[in-house]
Amino acid sequence: MNSGTTAFVYVTVRILVALALGAAAGWFAGSVSAGISATFALYLAWNLWQLRELWYWLQHRSVADPPDAVGLWGDVVAQVVRLHRRKRFHKERLTRLFRELRRSTAAMPDGVVMLDPQDEIVWFNRKAGELLALSRRADLGLRIDNLVRQPDFVQYLRSGQYSLPVIVRVDSHAERYVAFQLISYGEDQRLLMLRDVTREVRLEQMRKDFVANASHELRSPLTVVAGYLETFGADPGLGELAAPVAEMRRQTDRMTRIIEDLLELSRFEANDAPIQGAPIDVAGMAALLRKDVLARPTHPRQVEVSIESTAGLLGDEAMVQSAFSNLVDNAAKYTPPEGSMLIRWWTDEEGGHFSVRDTGPGISSAHIPRLTERFYRVDPGRSRETGGSGLGLAIVKHALHRHGAHLEIDSSEGRGSTFTCHFPLERVIERRVAATG
Amino acid sequence: METADLSHHISRRFNEDLERVRNKVLTMGGMVEQQLANAVMALIEGDSNLGVQVARDDFKVNGMEVSIDEECQKILATRAPAAGDLRVIVSIIKTITDLERIGDEGEKIGYIASRLATMERPADKYREIKHLGRIVSEMVHQALDAFARMDAEAALRVARQDRVVDEEYESIQRQCITFMMEDPRSIRRALDVMWVVRALERVGDHAKNICEYVYYMVYGKDIRHTRLEDVERDLRDRASGV
User: Which terminus of chain A is more solvent-facing, meaning fewer CB atoms within 10 Å of its CB: N or C?
Assistant: First the structure.
């Protein structure tokens, strides 16, 4: 450094001048060596003094001012001051940033808990503490499942499948629901996000209750109307009113069916818990369904049942019956008399499968994803004509969901459709010999 | 922090065994809490299906007790724990017995709930039972929290709650007697309600027991059959002695 070199040159020159002066003074006094020694001694003392000043300042630098030093010492002091100032600047900036980060996460409307690989709590924000009644002092380092003990949550934590959040009632009395979701980041670090979903859960419950209650309330007046219409319809002296009354009877029948379906759907929806259930004889059920189809006034010419497994199904018989009969009914409705239907039941290493194939008009792929929505109609005119409630496939979907099963729809326009129910392996049981075949 | 004591072992395996069994106790505790909450809800909501389900699920809690018991025996036999570790194991063995009993009381309430669901419900919709159920569930919850945190002070606070439960029990009992005298037709239902209240009161006792084991686990002092005031004084002396 240029200024550094000049400083050194200055210092060297100054020492040489001082030495020369000392030597001269010594020569006058009679001893040159004594003069040089005295100069060195003075210089050393001065240096020590400066060093002491610097040391004292570094010790008390937060309160004391930097010493007024000259020459090389002054340079050193100036550089230390600069370094110190820069360090303080960076430190302040980092602290400020950290504080702001912490404040912003604390102010987040959602709860956050940081977990280490052993599920121990590393850190959590204020909202999480509030939702789970955690205390900052005592609970760091404790395992989260020791404090949040709800079986559903513990199962979620150990399942290793975190793509979907789990909703848990955290306080059994205050009706507080929290959605938990785990997010992995870094190496083995995990974030547990919490969201208060009490409102959503309550709204959903209100919606379900409303549908169930409304359907129930509609049923009684409708029964009365349908009863009177039936009486009128039987009267031979109606004359020109006969046709309107007959139409009114058809429409009340349809309304009754819709309400029955709505009630059934809300019954399936009322509870989300998977069903334990009892063994069901699928082969027997399929045979009965076939009979029902053949009993219709118009039905496909050929209705086949193919039972390829002796296994039965574990579930709620009424629900499974409802799901299967809805599928079979649909197929029977949409298949022309010259067409054919195939009902199949088979098992493999993935589980049990029940499928209904028809040679009806088929469904274009654009409609398939929305087919299980309530009241969704591919062709509004056509399905009203056949008297459907528009709830059949929604019922199927819910009934299957409660059994851990899912519906697969394979169809294309003009080639017929295949609806397949896939049941998980634990639902399949080998039929006992006693079961009637 | 007291929990740090658990990590001072020469054998890492021992440490892990101890931690695992402790976690299992708390998992079992979570199941029991849920069973109890469901049982009370089944009664209040008149949901007979839920009541039956609670009664049927009790076997899971029983299974947990047996398996934790076995693990504790294995630790005792192979590791011969001493001092604090021994206290932890002893407390666990006792705690799971009480947890299992709480599960049994839940099962009982579940049964009665499924039976009462078919009967006409009283005008107050079992408000007292709801209230008592809340106090008792909260006690069980806090007792298990104290167990998880090894927090003897919190455990004592919970144990003190047991008096409130006893008072509540007394008052509901008196109320039931009045009902029965006023209207003999309500005797059957009132008797069933008494069974439930009695079961809840027992749950409170079990929660108190768990708190006593927590105190024992942390301080090595048995506070069963001791007046709570004496224990509190003892705790204060400890605090001032430190």
Answer: N
Tally the C-alpha atoms within 13 A of residue A312's C-alpha that lie toward its C-beta.
19
CA atoms of B193 and B116, how far apart (whole Å): 9
CA distance B14 to B7: 10
Mean pLDDT over all residues of chain A? 85
Taking the CA of residue A142 and the nearest CA in chain B, the distance in Å comes to 7
Residue A187 pLDDT class (50, 70, 90 cuts):
confident
Mean pLDDT lowest for which of A170-179, A240-249, B12-21?
Answer: A170-179
CB A309 within 8 A of CB A346: yes
Lowest-confidence pick of A54-68, B11-25, B172-186, B198-212: A54-68
Dihedral, CA atoms, A345, A346, A351, A356, nearest 10 degrees? Answer: -40
Region of poorest pLDDT, from A85-94, A137-146, B71-80: A137-146
The residue among B19, B45, B135, B149 with the most chain A CBs within 10 A of its CB, best to mutate, is B149
pLDDT, one tens digit per residue, over A2-37 is: 666 777 888 888 888 988 888 888 888 888 888 888
Is there a contact between A130 and A152 (Cβ–Cβ < 8 Å)? no
Q: B2-236 falls under which CATH superfamily? A: Phosphate transport system protein phou homolog 2; domain 2 (1.20.58.220)
Assign B174 to helix, strand or coil: helix
- The type of residue at A246 is A
**Is the CB of B44 inside 8 Å of chain A's CB atoms?**
no
Which residue bears the tokens 């528009």?
Answer: A390
Measured in whole angstroms, the distance separating CA B183 from the mean position of its chain's CA atoms is 35
Q: Is the pLDDT of residue A431 over 70?
A: no
The answer to whether the Cβ–Cβ distance between B37 and A138 falls below 8 Å is no
Distance from CA of B119 to the nearest CA of A (A): 22
Cα B168 to the chain's mean position, in Å? Answer: 17
> Which residue type is seen at B24?
K
State which fold the A108-196 domain adopts.
Beta-Lactamase (3.30.450)
Give the Cα separation of B220 and B6 in Å (integer). Answer: 15
In terms of CA atoms, which chain A residue is nearest residue B142? A147
ipTM: 0.83
